[in-house]
Amino acid sequence: MFYESLKYPSKLGLFTGSLKNIDADLIKLTEHIYVEDTIDGGASVWLRKPNADGKEIPRYRERSGEIAWDWPQASSLRGLEGKQEQEDIPIRCHCKGIKLLLRRGDYASIGGGERSRFIDPRTKKSLASFDACDSCRLQFGVDIVHWTFVEFANISQADGGSFPNSMAELKAAVDTGDSAVGTLAYYQSSPGVQRYFCKVCSTSALYACNDRPEIVDVAIGLLEAPDGARAEALLSWKFGDPLTYVDDTKGGWRERLMQRVQADAEEFRIARGYPKSWKRLEKEVSDSTDLLQA
């Protein structure tokens, strides 16, 4: 909820996700710092013009050294159809008490069931979400959470050792202090739902629920992908689509922020020449069919 620095002992930083969604322009985003750490620009690309005045805000390599908005060049990114030779992606929290590996799933034949909801049928990449729900916001302390959706079978320990293979196994491993789960702890936010975090550095990491016991949500910020924070060689982003659970933001300042995020993400998608998400295309086809049948 709060951030404290020894450099400023009389001040506290407040995570905006903990603020009430009142009908006022409660915050103003002024800059993005340490953007170079992301390699690909990270989430800054959909927070380019985040304020009501519609103006671009600056990005900095660290706390200084401004970066142009066309950095990095498209030619330097792997992109949506980029290389896929990276099979294992580290999953790590800040203190590295959580040290796991995410293996690329074999989705040559997706089939039906739950996993078909989370795999792009064109690229066989895992879905990356823009989640605006109140529960995730309050757990993370940020206004938008980005998840990807992974089968437990595709996660291992950093040394290749086995990791729990289901929601029930993960909960039991944490309850018994199994070393396979490192510093993971959980908070049961509602019946049949566990939100996992690091009990040392407090990183929010995983989400598991009874509705899909073989699939776990992984916070994308924990992925150490060589192509950048967005891990585009692994993930299929819904750039420019409506945010998930965006209705939770209705009636307050977050509603307007989410509208600007969606617009910035769509502008980024078009500038990069990325196709629309498969979910958006499916909806457009469905809407057209409904119109023809009306």
Primary descriptors:
single chain; 294 residues; alpha+beta; five-stranded antiparallel sheet
Number of helices: 4
**Mind summarizing the main beta sheet?**
5 strands, antiparallel
Distance between the termini: 50 Å
> How many strands in all?
14
The radius of gyration over CA amounts to: 19 Å
Widest sheet: strand ordering: 8-13-12-11-10
**Proportion of strand residues:** 15-25%
Spatial shape:
globular
Helix % is 10-25%
The arrangement of helices and strands along the chain is: EEEEEEEHEEHEEEEEHH
Question: What's the structural blueprint in terms of helices and strands?
Answer:
Blueprint lengths: L1 E2 L9 E2 L44 E2 L5 E2 L20 E5 L6 E5 L22 E3 L5 H7 L6 E5 L3 E3 L9 H10 L7 E7 L2 E6 L5 E6 L5 E5 L15 E3 L15 H20 L5 H16 L1
Parallel strand pairs: 7-14
Antiparallel strand pairs: 1-2, 3-4, 5-6, 6-9, 8-13, 10-11, 11-12, 12-13
Report on the architecture of this protein.
This protein has 294 residues and is an alpha+beta fold. 18% of the residues lie in helices and 19% in strands. It has 4 helices and 14 strands. The strands form 5 sheets. A 5-stranded antiparallel sheet has the order 8-13-12-11-10, sandwiched between helices. A 3-stranded antiparallel sheet has the order 5-6-9, with no helix packed on it. Strands 1-2 form a two-stranded antiparallel ribbon.
